Amino acid sequence: YSLDKVNAEEFLEVYKGVVHEYPKMVEELMSGACKAFFVPSK
Predict the structure, then answer these.
(1) Digit-coded pLDDT (tens) for 21-42
(2) Domain total in the chain
(3) Contact partners, residue 2, CB within 8 Å, separation at least 6
């Protein structure tokens, strides 16, 4: 699975304006394949 810029920005939107590295985080998330995990709690 891979993310385009719009989806990467949406996923990381809570960090926008808060974390200085936000643009780099978006680029990193777009740079390759992603794996998503669902970790249920008891």
Answers:
(1) 999 999 999 999 888 899 999 8
(2) 1
(3) 30, 32, 33, 34
